[in-house]
Structure formats: C-alpha cells, structure tokens
Queue: 3 jobs
Job 1
Amino acid sequence: MQTEDVVAGGRRERKKRETRLALAAAALRLAIEKGPDNVTVEEISEAADVSVRTFFNYFPHKEHAILGRDPEDLERSLTRLREAPAEQSPLTMLRVLVSQALADFEDKAGDAKQRFELIGRSPALLAQFVLLGAEDERALSAALAERMGEPATSLRPALLVGAVTTAVRVAAEKQKLAGGHEVPGLTVLVDEAFALLADGLDPAYDRTILTRDQEGQS
Amino acid sequence: MQTEDVVAGGRRERKKRETRLALAAAALRLAIEKGPDNVTVEEISEAADVSVRTFFNYFPHKEHAILGRDPEDLERSLTRLREAPAEQSPLTMLRVLVSQALADFEDKAGDAKQRFELIGRSPALLAQFVLLGAEDERALSAALAERMGEPATSLRPALLVGAVTTAVRVAAEKQKLAGGHEVPGLTVLVDEAFALLADGLDPAYDRTILTRDQEGQS
DNA sequence: AAATAGTTTGCACGGACTGCAAGTTCGAGT
DNA sequence: ACTCGAACTTGCAGTCCGTGCAAACTATTT
C-alpha cells in the first residue's frame, strides 16, 4: 500500500486491470468488425494475448466482455441520488440523474456509443444488457425509497424508477427508429416523456372500470 | 381439409401439435423437478420420446420450450385492443386489457403460474422471457398508436404500453417479495400503479431543471 | 531465500446448437 | 392400391461456450 497510488496497488493489480481492459477492448473491436455473434472467445483471448481459460476468469460470458460495463457508473448514480438536494421531488431527482448519465455517456468517446449500437444487433447482447439493467434498477429503487423516506416495499419508488427507465428506453428507440430523419433529439424526447409521466399519462383514465370483473382476490 | 376439423388438418398436423405439446410439457415438468438450469435438452427429448435433433426443429432454445408461450395470447390481446369501445381512453383500454390478461392467466390451470415461478429462478429463462415480452410490447404499441389515431413514431402510445408493462412487472415483484406476508394482492397493487400513472407520478416535478445543462441538440 | 497467496494455463469434460445427408412417414393423384 | 413427392425425423460430425481441476508460474511477505 505504499507504491505510487495514482492507480492503487502493486504490479499485480495493475496487470489485472490491464488484462481486463485489453479483453474488453478486443471484444468490442472484434464485435464491431465481425458482428457480435460471429466473434469467438478464442479470438478475443488471442487478441488480448491470454489463454481462453483466463478470459473466463475475468468475464462470465462473452457478452459481458463486449458490454464492458463499468461498475463505477452505477455507483456514481447512486451517490448522486443520495446527495441530491432535499427539496427536489423524486421525479426531478431522476430527471437530473438521467441528464447527468446521458452527459457521462456522451463523454465516453466513441466506445459507449458503439457498444450501444451493437446491442441493437444481437439478441444475446440485448438479453445480457437488460439483465444488468434490472439489477441497476433494483439498486436505484432501493436508494430512492430511502431518499423518499418510504419503506422498501413501497410501490411508488420502484414504479418511478421503472417508468423512468422505460421512458429513456422508449425515447432511445423512437430516436433510432426515425434514423436521422430530422428527429427531435434524444434530450427533447426524454423531456417529453418526463413531462407525460409527471402530469399523468392519461387524464381521462376511467377508474370505475376496475370494479367490474374482479372479486375477492386476497 | 375434410377430416374432423375440430383440430384442423390431417394426421401430420395433429402429430406435430402433439409433439410440440409433449415437448413443452416435458420441459416444464423437468424444469420444476430439477431446477430450470439443471435440465438438459437430451432429457426433455427423451421424455417426449423424440430425438434431440427433433427438439431443435420445434424450439430454438431450451428456454423456449420451458416458457412454452402460446402465440394466441398476444393475438387475443391485440384483437381486444382493436375492438375496445371507442370512448375509452388509452390507459383505460390498457387497464381492461391487463385485467383480462390476468384473468386468462388465472384460468390456465397451474401451468402458467408454475412457469412464472420458474422465471424468477433462472437468469437464462428471464432473459428469454424479457426478449419475448419486448416483441409483444412493440406489437401492442403499434396497435395502440393506430387505435389512438397517432403516427407510429409517436411517443405517447409507446410510453403508455411501456409504463403499463413496467407497472405490472413492478407490482408482481413487490407481491412476490413480500412472500405471503399479508400482501395487498396483485390486483390491488396493479390498481394502485395505474392510478399513479394516470394522475402523474410526481405532482411536484420541477420543469425548470431541464434548461440548465443542455444546449443545442439537433 | 523461502514460504505464501494470487494468477494463469492446459486438459478434459458436458452441454447447446447447426448443417448435412440419409431414412421414414404422410398425403395426393392416378 | 401404387407411386411419387413433400414434409418430418434422425444420426453424425462438428463448432463453440463455459466449468472444475491440478499443475505451473509470479508477485508479495517475512
């Protein structure tokens, strides 16, 4: 614990970081070149100059390497959430959070965006991505519940986080779908979605409908 | 086309249906018995008395067989959506739809519920389930957009469907999490979620926050 | 320098899934 | 009833993923 702590740890830790990075980078590069489903773990390991077996010491599947998610990202969002000004309302906090996350995303050179592109092209990748996202969602819900002073079992914080996630996803899909055709821009779409969530998705919702076809359901 | 058309087609079609059914049933049974991740395709095929190769003529993965989804279910929902009374507002339509879908779900003997149980226990299963759900969501969004007379690129229908899906999911999670402890019942939770979506998730949402850290974005 | 703990690697294995090339079975026409 | 073609099943060979294990190697500590 007393070497240059610019990047803490001795040679061991440094090498580990390097290997992990090399693997993720190789995975990404090859996935772009050959299509995410035509890359083999062998190729990736080769490119990073380690054995196949070692690859699996670092990542549980091929997909994780390609996605190369940085655990810091979630940490950062959680911290931001916990430190948000007390006077902000929940949805406002989340709006700021999304805003910051998108900004972070823009900063990450091309990598993050290329990864994002790939996800749309491989179901396997998409599946892993969604799974990781679900974990994040749980963590964020818990943090928000605490922030709002509600019990962890409460519906509202979870629904808020879920709806916001959905909003961003839907906005991103619409954005991509329109394919460059003078689209409103992601930020604008996200704003629109947040406004809808805030005001209510449907002012004409008819509550009386419910009681019709439901009896005793514990 | 002139045999007993109770279940249209000749011996060929009938056998196909039977095989598919036998495979799905065997898959489900074994998944329950041994845990979804400890079942092999070989066992399933054996139980249904076909070759492994044949299994893959019917299902693209093991997971599909276990989930054994009925394409009719989506069809039914789409039809219902298209035939909904014109005076119903969008969210109301969706509420009715969910209500009916949950009722269908209850009717399906134990199968559907057991499948649902399993999903929570296997990431692989969950991943496939989510992927299938995403397709449904797209189809429903399109139908709803048309029903609302909005262009397919419009944000609101997609957001509505997405948010509702999320609402049901979140409600189901909360329900399960509480594990029998005097929980409010799924229907009640779903109602609560719909009410929140209808009224707005956050009346105190602060719109001014947005303009702060965003400049020209196409 | 030696003991220790963390890492890498090869090997062997089991399981998913695919393409191909026979076989079989079914359905239709004659 | 007989025959022919289409649809379905099957075995085989092969690729790739992912894991447990034990041996080799390397950094760290004392």
Note: Chain A has ten helices and no strands.
Job 2
Amino acid sequence: MKISTRFSDAIHLLAFIHIYKGQIPLSSETIAGSIETSPVMVRKLMGELRRAGLIETTHGTPDPKLAKATDDISLLDVYLAIEKEKPLFQIDYKTNPDCIVGGNIQETLKEYYNQAEVAAKAKLNSIKLSDVIDTILVKQKEKDAFKREIEQ
Amino acid sequence: MKISTRFSDAIHLLAFIHIYKGQIPLSSETIAGSIETSPVMVRKLMGELRRAGLIETTHGTPDPKLAKATDDISLLDVYLAIEKEKPLFQIDYKTNPDCIVGGNIQETLKEYYNQAEVAAKAKLNSIKLSDVIDTILVKQKEKDAFKREIEQ
DNA sequence: TTATTTGTAATTTTTGTTATTACATCTATT
DNA sequence: AATAGATGTAATAACAAAAATTACAAATAA
C-alpha cells in the first residue's frame, strides 16, 4: 500500500493557517501548494479538523480559522481528528483460534499494545500546536541568519 | 504511518516456539498454520529474529530455539528486529521548501514525533515475552475452565 | 542419496493511500 | 439575480508498500 502522511499534513495545514492568516488568501489551492498535495486532499483534511472542532470554515469562502488558541490544540487532538480509533500497532486478527497462541494472542497483545499507545498519546498530548509553530519560526530565523552570513 | 502485522506475528512466533517446543515439530509449515500465513513469511520473520539474536536456527532443520530467556526478550527487542529504523509516525518529506512551513516542518516534527516514539518504545521495553506467554496461558486456562462449566 | 527443510530471491497479488474527475452548493461581487 | 470562484463530497483511477506465491540452492537427517 502507501504510507500515510495525513497526520503530518494536518499539522502542516494548521500551522500554515496560523502563520499566513491575513497575509495571503487561504484557499485549499494555496495550502495544497505548500503541502505539495491536491486541493481535494486539503479540503478532506479540513473537513475532519472541522468536525473535530479544531478549525472553522465557511462553505464557499477561502478563509479557514483556528477554532482554538494554538496552545490549546495538542498534537493528540490532531491525531485523533485524523486517525480516529485506528490503532498505532496493528494486531493480526486472522490466526488459528484452535491453537493456544493463535486463540489468545489478540486479547493479550491488545492489552500490551494499548499501554505503549497510551504512552505515545500522552506525549503527543503534551505537545501543542504553539510549540510546533514556535519551532518552525525559530528554524526559519536560523536559516535566514545563516543565509545572510554566507552572502557577505 | 502504522505498523503491519509483522510485529504481531513475530511475537506470536516466539511465544509459539516457547510453548510448543518438544511437543510438536517446529517447522515453518507448522508455525505458519498457527499464524495463518505462509511458511515463507515465517522463515523471513525467523531470519530477522535470528539476525537480531533472539532465536537460533539450523539450516535444513525444523527446530528453532529462543536464544535468550523469555524474561530477557522485550517487545522492543522484537519490534526493533522486525521494524528496524522505521518511524512510528510518518513525516511528509515532499513539501514546498520555499514556504516557511513546508521548509521547516520535517525537522520540527522529527523532534516531536521522536518524543512520542521513545515513550512508546520505553513501554514496549518494559514488557517481556514472558509476560505475553503468561497472559496467553492464563487466558487459555480461563477458556478451558469456562468450557468445562457449560458442558456440565 | 533421497526426502525434507531452511534461507532467499524474484514475481505476482492484494490492499490501503493519494490523485483525479465531477459536480452540487455556498459566498461575494457586480 | 447572474456570475465567478470557492468549498464539500463522492466516485474512480493511479500508485506504492505489504503479503503471498513461486522457485530453487543449500543444509540436514535418515
């Protein structure tokens, strides 16, 4: 199949809206240009973020807004908006039920996988969109400073 | 993102070897019957587990052995043997480098994603193959007891 | 030396992801 | 109110990674 970057793209989208709001028109076309994906994909992601209460959009108007402060949106909020109930670690449910291992491995791993998944989610919940945006802006400043340096 | 069922199947394989060792011949055919996959897949997984030092096999002989005690093999050991460097959360590397967001999102998310990944891995490292096997055996005993009950 | 099995490579099949096409619906402007 | 430009969504095609299959050399054990 193909590896999904939807979570990564959704964070990109939110940061983009916050950083470029008021600067350029925020159409799905414009946003898609930054993510380098299709406008349809952007609109689909925005639909999921809207239903999760993270952004507000108006039908027909290219002007999405964040529905909350950037320090009130965690990466877990975004993850859940996009990935929903999808487990982080995939369990093989097609095993031989008549075997001691095949018949009990699912229930067993479900417990242990969940512990690891919760640990990751707790960490995602501690990271806010504001952290991501701050880091992006710092990295950009560093790039600009280095660029000026080698130009002299 | 997301992990295939190979991780799940590898744990299955190790538990199967431990539980059925000496009881039945442990050919890739037999093991594949419990996982409900192909013998070739089993041999591939066994190859990776062998190279990671978790099992010992002999070419031509259907008799794999665990290379360590079951409480000395953690789920993280198995995960790393199978998934190697593969990140738990996928970053979209194809974004517009001329955009502030598109040009810095990868480096930014790499840091934060890694924090979440480490949290999950630390938890996986605390769970041992012995825990998995104990849980499987307890669940089987419970099944057997319940089955006897409704038969009377 | 023969049957069985492992170890691997190469190829095909399967399946989830992304891209594309199409269009109804809404907004804003004239 | 008519038009241009946008969103929201469904349906379909194209694509890419995983799993299954096929094939066979090399090793073991009888």
Note: Chain B has a mean pLDDT of 95.
Job 3
Amino acid sequence: MTEMRDMPGHLARRFQQIAVAVFLAEVEAAGFDLTPVQYAALAAIAANPAIDQITLAGLIAYDRTTITGVIDRLAQKGLVVRRASARDRRSRELLITDEGKRTLEAITPAVEAAQRLMVRGLSAAEANELVRLMRKAIAAANDLSRAPLREGAAEER
Amino acid sequence: MTEMRDMPGHLARRFQQIAVAVFLAEVEAAGFDLTPVQYAALAAIAANPAIDQITLAGLIAYDRTTITGVIDRLAQKGLVVRRASARDRRSRELLITDEGKRTLEAITPAVEAAQRLMVRGLSAAEANELVRLMRKAIAAANDLSRAPLREGAAEER
DNA sequence: CCTTATTGATCAGTATGCTGATCATCAGTA
DNA sequence: TACTGATGATCAGCATACTGATCAATAAGG
C-alpha cells in the first residue's frame, strides 16, 4: 500500500472528485444549477418539514458551520425558507418552497443518471458491492469525523 | 437507489470526509501538521525531482489552479523549493528539501496507519476489494473531472 | 521571421469543509 | 429564582476544488 494508487484515502478523494464533476455536469445539462451538497440538503428538508439546522446537519452528515452557508444559498435561490421556531427562539425551522418542490422533482432523473454514470466502469453487481463496502466502512468510522451521521429513530435498519 | 444512503455520490463524499479526518488525526498525533493533499504532493515531488507543476498536478489528479496554493504552503513550511527552469522560463521546477525528506520519512507510519483505520470496519479481503472497485470506477470515469490523472509512461500497468 | 495557437503559472471569485470563538437562549439544579 | 452548563446558529479564518480570465513564454505554421 506504499503506492499512492492503492491508498484508500487517495482513492476516496479521487472518487469524490469525479462524483461531484459528474453530478454537476448532469444537473447542468438538465438546466439546473445545484451542487450535490445543496441537493442533499433540499431533499432532506423536503422529507422533514420544519427540521432545524442541527438535526438536518446530522441527517446528511454536514458540519454545523457548513450548513449555514448551504441554507443561505438555497434560500437565496428561493428553494427553501428559514422560519423562527415558536418553541425555541434559538432555532430556525426549514421549509421547502413550492419552487423547491418543483426543482427537486424535476432534477431527480439527472441525479439518478449521475449516480449510474460515476460507476459506469463497474457491472451492476460490482456497483452494488462498492456501495455495500463504502457503507460498511463508513458505519465503522462514523464518529471519527466532526460531522457524523445522526440517523432519526425511524430510519434505523 | 432513491435513498440517499445508497447513492454512490453521497457515500463518496462521506468516505472522503472520514478519510481526511482520520488522516489529519493520525498525522497530528505523530506531531506533524500536513494535509492529505500536501502529503501527496510532497511524496510525488520526492519521487520526481525537478517536476513542473502541471505534470505534478497530472500525477496526483489535482486541478492546476489548486496546486499553486498547495505548493505555496509546502514552500512556506520549508519542505519544498520552487526553482526557475532553464529550459522553459514559464515553468517552475519543484524540489524537496532535506527537511521535506525527513518529514516525509517520519510521517509515513502515520499515513499508513490512517489508511488502515479508515477501513477498520472491513476485513482485509473486503478492504482490498473496495480498493479494486474504486480504482476500476475511477479509471473508467477519469476524464469526467477537470483534473484527470495523467500517468507517466513508466507507471502504466 | 512573424503571426497564431498553445502552454505554465497565477489570480479573482465561489462553494464546500473544517477549527475555534461568540452570542442568545434554554434546561437543570442549588 | 439565580447560577451553571448545554445548545442552536453564526462568524472569522484557513485549506481544498473548481470556473474562467490573464500574462508571459514557447511552439508551430506559413
């Protein structure tokens, strides 16, 4: 493993680099301007109306300081709105707008195409195995990053 | 694959996030202050003395505009030096310093430990398979990113 | 030889990600 | 109730990555 080409860390960076490039290309070809990070946040807000930012960050494993800017840009594009919480005045509730819903629906085919394209060198069985192995490795190392995944109780497997 | 947890792109981001965190933690514990990107560049310069920045970028798949800042920081730490090329006055030759060599040697155990730690949830066979699948997927999609890998002729396999 | 295209390096601008700090607010306890 | 600690959000600062532009220098062509 002395060779760079065999180091998991190097390959992780490279695969992520390609994944982002493929995502952006497919989404732009479909006529949208949304990053992978913005898409994940938008989808999570759609699935969890009135979620607060910290809980959202846990759901998609973002750092809490990163989420602020992501939501800023989604709000500026008119896809989500921030609303003050009645229960806790520190907290902001996040809601998807009608335009956000339309965008999310319209963009989904491009997102799925990107997922296939980034593993186009693999057979379907190999792609499934790659997903399984990444999930397993990630699960065992979840707490090693500052932004671990925090699944909702209903989402356990 | 509608679920985020099964999307290769999401897993790629998450795995990379963990890989970086593990790398930084191991390297810091060993008493050094070097990012994964800086380490890869330093190792590539050590293996290819007097390499220019564009060729270096191709060897480790960095964007040409990213390499400038990375070399800036390596130079500021005294690990590499930039030297004007005699052949082509546009080009800068990169050389590792003695301190760079010492750092590279001393840091290697921590880097290798990090590689093992980021796949600690996998058996050795599974880790090898993950590396194989990532390499295969990356090879097939290499040209889809702005910073493709450009291997030297002697490094083909 | 001179024009044109290409190339190596850098820069401005934008978007993640992180460290560590701050501020307001809330919760638990003496 | 007053104090203490924890929490939600944001900010400043730094390091990747990328888009697109610029500039100097080289290469290729007629």
Note: Residues 17, 20-21, 24, 52-54, 64-65, 67-68, 85, 88-92 of chain B lie near DNA strand C (CB under 10 Å from a C1').
